[in-house]
Amino acid sequence: MRSLPPLYLETHQHRSAPPTAYENLLGDSLERAFGQGIYEIDALVVYLNTAGPSGPDAQPWTQASFEQEMARLGA
User: Fold this and answer.
1) In the chain, what percentage of residues exceed pLDDT 90?
2) What is the C-alpha to C-alpha distance for residues 8 and 51, in angstroms, rounded to an integer?
3) pTM for this predicted structure
């Protein structure tokens, strides 16, 4: 008898809509930063201000704006 694998939630299964272009650009940029060993918020902010995309409302990233945007996107 063959058993089924356990059920699990796909990462984006709970989303109400596909990611926006901005969300995709931000995610791609964060993946590149992580790939370069950048994990600390202050270094991520510097990386995003250099590599893009711009922060919310096309403003430069700050630690506060990064934390607020991650909280908003993760909600």
Assistant:
1) 68
2) 34
3) 0.78
DSSP letter at 12 equals T
The rounded Cα 75 to chain-centroid distance in angstroms is 12
Quote the CA–CA distance of 2 and 59 in Å, as a whole number: 55
**Paired tokens of 71:** 């909280």
For the record, the structure tokens of 74 come out as: 């993760």
Helix (H, G, I), strand (E, B) or coil at 35: helix
Of 70, 36, 30, residue with least CA distance to 53? 30
61 is written with which tokens?
Answer: 């990233």
Asked whether the beta carbons of 36 and 50 are under 8 A apart, the reply is no
